[in-house]
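# step 3/5: fold
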Amino acid sequence: MPDFGIFRGFNDKLFGNKLYAGQLPTQLGKIGSESFGFTGLLDDYPNAAAAYSLRKLRDAYTGSAIRVRRSSDNAEQDIGFVNNALDTSSLTNFCGSGNGFVTTWYDQSGNARNATQTTAANQPQIVSSGSLLTLNSKPKIDATSLQFLKFNSDIATSNSSYSLFMTYYKDTTGNQAIVLKDVTNYHWLDYGTTQYISGVDAISISTTFQINTQYLYSCITNYSVGASIYRNNNLLGTRSALTGNSISSYLPSNGFRTAKISLQEFIYYPSNQSSNRTGIESNINSYYGIY
């Protein structure tokens, strides 16, 4: 029998007994999950009001990533994670040779603010004719002009600071990408050289968002002081104190025609995250390989 004494220090510390040869694979797996386990973005940067992703964002999160409706018979199924990434095998097996549409994007923040769509015609797509829709080899949720998901509760209060981080891709022309909207206010990400961040509050930028190009977009606000927007870790523009209400309620919009956009991750904090911005952006970019 080989000598497993080199592992006893780990085993005694973690499990309080000795490690035997027959236990080695199981116990090493426990070492991997318990001592050197998964750490998600929300573990490092907690307190998000809502967080949606096609990867796992928080170690303690035990729910699914999305709920999907297949076109063949309109049956629905929750799709979870494998190795902290979307279980694409279960997804494509469920959809078969047909299409798959997202009915729910589950909130991983712990606040149960799931994004949902009950109208079949408005459900964004994730599988097309049996093939997974992807960007940079990672799955994406594709929303065409009339497809969107709606939050089941507000994610923000009026006149509050907030921070928004999202992957963004558009493959059609037109300045119509409203990302968030309540009754009178919106976050209009793609509007030429003007970015509207709370209805009436605008920031001028020097270069527009291009089609067929993926971006990492961030907006950091301190309501009484001002706001800054970033694209691929580059500052695009700033403005002074905000005057409009804080955005809330819808992703990407309700009652507005939106441009065709694709999303992989969307995280909203009800606070100014300027001190954590570079760390959050680095985490997102490291996984999705945007820039």
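# step 4/5: annotate
Residues 4-35 have pLDDT under 50 and may be disordered.
# step 5/5: archive (pending)
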